[in-house]
Amino acid sequence: MRNVLTRTASGIVYIALMVAAVFTQWVAVPLTFFLIVVGIRELYKMYETPELKVRYPFAIVAGLTMALAFLFASQFYLFVRGLPHEPGIRIKIFPYEGVLILLSVVAVFLPELFTRHENPVQNIGMGLLSLVWIVLPLSVLFFVWSVQCPAQVLGFFILIWMADTAAYVFGSLFGKHKLAPEISPGKTWEGFLGSCVVTVGLAVGLFYIPFFQSAGLKVWHWIVVALLTEVFGLLGDLLESMFKRKAGVKDSGNIIPGHGGVLDRVDSILFATLPVWLFCLMCDL
Question: Across the strands, what pairs with 260?
Answer without folding.
Answer: 256
